[in-house]
Amino acid sequence: MASSPVPIEVTRFGEFEANPRSRELRRDGARVRLPDQSFEVLLMLLANPGELVTREEIRKRLWSSDTFVDFDHGLNNAVKRLRDALGDSAETPRFIETLPRRGYRFIGEIDAAIAPPAGLANSVAGPKLRSRQRSFLYVLIAIAALVVAAWTIRSFRQRTSFVASSARPIMLAVLPFQNLSGDSSQDYFTDGLTEEMISQLGEVNGDQLGVIARTSSMMYKNTTKNIEQIGRELGVDYVLESSVRRESDYVRITVQLIRVNNQVHVWANSYDREVKHSIEVQEEVAREVAQQIQVKLVHASPATDVASSHPINPDANDAYLRGRHFFNEFTEAGFSRAIEYFNQAIALDPEFASAYSGLADSYNFLVITNVLPPNVGLPKAQTAAQRAVELDANLSEAHTSLALLKLNTWHWAECQSELRKAIGLNNSNSTAHRWYAACLVGAGNVEQALHEIREANRVDPLSMPNSAEIVRDLYYARHYEQAVQEARRIERFDAVFPRTHFWLGRVYAQMGKNAEAIAEAEMVGPPDSTQRLTESAYANAHAGKLAEARALLKKLEQRARTGFVPAYDLAVVNIGLGEKEAALKWLEKAYDEGDWAFIVFATEPRLDPLRSDPRFQTIRKKLDLPPNR
Q1: Angle subtended by helix axes 131-160 and 446-459, to nearest 10
Q2: Which CATH code is given to the segment(s) 170-309?
Q3: Which of 501, 565, 503 is nearest to 534 (CA)?
Q4: Contact at 8 Å (CB) between 605 and 542?
Q5: pLDDT tens digits, 328-360
Q6: 242: which strand partners?
Q7: Which residue from 421, 420, 431 is spatially nearest to 328, judged by alpha carbons?
Q8: Strand, coil or helix: what is 193?
Q9: Any idea which architecture 10-144 has in CATH?
Q10: How many Cα neighbours within 13 Å face the side chain of 580?
Q11: pTM
Q12: Which of 69, 70, 93, 67 is nearest to 80 (CA)?
């Protein structure tokens, strides 16, 4: 079993030195930036050289039992950041060896443990603390950690909780369906059922029932936490537990509704169906749950809804669920695989509205992540989103997809209209609330946007993207100090989430905290990604480090000759360098390319040096922005 933190002394290994007191890692004397959680992992490994440090031991050290994070995601990111800092590799480790599904082992040679400064002489005996002193120190550290964790959880709940009125809606969480088939390759099917169930229940009147969104619910996949813990963490009144056993073309779905405050099983049922009827089963369960918690579905006649709904081809539905599974990876490769499966679903069932919605989302995100140029990806997103709405005007996700397309093509009024429809159909659609906030920012209404992103957090309290969007909106509202505070709260739960660092770097640059801005930019995306190069180039230029900024800009320009680099990004870097003529040239090119980044043209602080220029004003008029924004 791994021991507690190493004593307060500097440990040297290879070209590195780790100092627990200052919480610094140095390489040949130069400081190496390392997030706190990654540093904690390093300390545990150094305290137990050559020994296994289990994942469970790390979890207990880094996250208390009440902390609601995606542990696997958080730990994997912490170890990845540590390996990046050490220049290490999981495939050919020099320092950190992975023992699959078990934990990690430090395999490097520890050269020396350097005594602490003279000021610490009274707290050490020789190179290490005496056993009794060390134990007492660990107790103090543990107590302090518990106090900090308790305060952190309380503040996070306060930030994300919905202050209910006397008419507070009943809150429900749909836990991930358990896959009882014994075949992990069927996870896409059970995850898809979870997502569809959340969507179905989200169509209940939002004034009466609020449903926790998918991102937060999926945090509890394979959880060992009890209902009381889950209910407390999510702030819900009821929890829906479900399991699926699939054999060939048949499934058995078992569901039970549990009241959180006394763990009473309010209602339970089982359904044996052919796979092709699984969607109808979800609708049936949604209605029964709604009746049990004494609310009514939005639609006037549930029986009529099912009877008039388009019958879903089971093979098309299977392809759709696989597509959603890959889309939810939120990676370039995931979006591309999702497109393949959504197209398969559409080929099998040309009237499958949800598949068109998924296809539109995939193309939209390939544009947002700068994989596809706008003139390639957005027309495909437009066609798919429009078709989804035509096929099912009552599908909240279809209106959300179309709204995102409208946002990316600078149609702010139409974007807001579609999102109001999406939220009206499903008030628990967290994505619709988040994009509504983005749309309001684009239209210059940043204060209302802040309200909307907090609504997204109300129904999806554990979503890191939602939390990071609060920092984003505070940045555009120019509430920089608040943005820093929000970012620091988020980092206590996931210190390496890229979008937090993305927005925090921009905030620091506008505050004139240039060293911090550069450091944050270096934590955005892969080292050679267009996104990191752009953010680092602007941060260095804004700091007056012109040579460094120009070297990064040169890399972007070279990449633009053979691949796609948004002209908007090149304009922003040139603004940082004070090259206004070049910046305007690139900005005009970005407009001609239909760059989606123009959605924040009215509020982007980095564009301020150009706002008085006539050519800038010409672009502004073409965008047809609301007046006085």
Answers
A1: 120
A2: 3.40.50.10070
A3: 565
A4: no
A5: 777 788 899 999 999 999 999 999 999 999 999
A6: 255
A7: 431
A8: helix
A9: Orthogonal Bundle (1.10)
A10: 10
A11: 0.59
A12: 93
